[in-house]
Amino acid sequence: MRRFDARMRVLGDLGIDLSRPGRELLEDLRERKEERRRQYEELEETQREADRLLLPELLDLHVSGSDADRRCVGSAARMPQFSVGVRLGSVHPDRDRR
Length: 98
Fold this sequence. Notes:
Blueprint: H1 2-12, H2 22-31, H3 33-64, H4 67-77
């Protein structure tokens, strides 16, 4: 789980500095659009891989485990970067504009 967490944190950091002047920020965003799209797709793929590899084991632990196991799984599920299988789907920021 730590490996996925570390990878998703790197991919989730788009390096956008909102304190920059408006025109400069907008120009940078336009120039890096393709890079951000690729980074977002890689993040989505990492999340799907985490879902596929971790979800069955975590569900089994939650269903068959002890109360302590269920608390541990519940704590992990509340972590912001923890998507494992509970997403109903993601919305890509540019997907509806294509």
